[in-house]
Specification:
Elements lengths: L7 H10 L9 E3 H8 L13 H15 L28 H9 L5 H6 L1 E3 H11 L36 H10 L7 H4 L7 H19 L5 H5 L2 H6 L7 H8 L5 H4 L11
Antiparallel strand pairs: 1-2
């Protein structure tokens, strides 16, 4: 959509390079996305932004303004923000938004402040019928780390099958596991604890959103059912968010901005 490749060889070369350029973190600034999309290093000093990079940055900023692309650090809501949180409001950046979108003056500060999540960009590309950028969505790669059923992730107890019975008993006693973990105790590993928690959280979150489409992702994550019954309390917030984010209604997923701080 934003770049026309001249030859089949160039397409082939970029396809190969995509395997070495994969960047699989979940959030990037509009500045990073715009430069990396066209193969530029966003860390360099540019006296003049390349025209294709500027055009894409303006397009993304315009999409954020129109609520077509979610932004983690800019809220479109008309509400009062605490003094130290004002930069999360669209109205704090209103002049930068309009000048950047129009091309009058491209605000580098805004481009570096506006953070977009990987899945929000993917959703926007799908809606625009645009090819997602190779650096973030390399051809042939899964969107998430994938392992065979029954395997444990490296760093998450994958050596348990080599433990002695005494070591296993000590582990389960320390972490309060119950009889349902008999499969792990006897080496018949079928489903990781994190997999069980993910499946349970997705099922419950989906059910809640079917009944109430106004619930925010944060409220679902903190719901006692997810925390206690589904085991969400054993995982960090971003992990659980990643499990259920795609299930949220569009208007909830595209809702950005941080809440006010509680006053003591």
């Amino acid at each position: 959509m934003f770049c026309t490749l001249g030859t089949g060889k160039l397409r082939h070369d970029i396809s190969i390079l995509s395997y070495f350029m994969a960047l699989l973190i979940n959030q990037l600034s509009v500045w990073d996305i715009s430069f990396r999309w066209f193969g530029y290093d966003p860390r360099k000093i540019y006296l003049r932004i390349p025209i294709e990079v500027e055009d894409l940055a303006r397009t993304l900023i315009h999409a954020i303004h129109k609520a077509e692309l979610g932004c983690e650090t800019v809220s479109l809501e008309k509400k009062e923000f605490e003094e130290d949180m004002k930069s999360f409001s669209f109205y704090y950046w209103v002049d930068d938004f309009f000048s950047t979108a129009s091309g009058t003056y491209v605000s580098r500060k805004l481009l570096k402040w506006a953070i977009v999540s990987r899945y929000d960009l993917l959703d926007w590309c799908k809606r625009m019928n645009a090819q997602p950028p190779h650096f973030w969505f390399p051809e042939g790669w899964n969107l998430e780390y994938s392992i065979e059923e029954g395997e444990l992730k490296p760093g998450h107890g994958y050596r348990i099958k080599f433990w002695t019975e005494e070591q296993r008993n000590a582990y389960f006693e320390e972490f309060g596991e119950d009889d349902q973990d008999e499969d792990l105790r006897t080496n018949n590993v079928k489903l990781r604890k994190s997999q069980e928690a993910k499946v349970a959280c997705r099922q419950v979150a989906g059910s809640i959103w079917k009944q109430d489409k106004t619930r925010t992702i944060a409220s679902i994550i903190n719901d006692p059912i997810l925390q206690e019954l589904c085991g969400a309390k054993y995982y960090d917030v971003e992990t659980v968010r990643g499990w259920i984010n795609d299930l949220a209604p569009d208007e909830i997923r595209n809702h950005r901005g941080r809440p006010k701080k509680n006053k003591d």
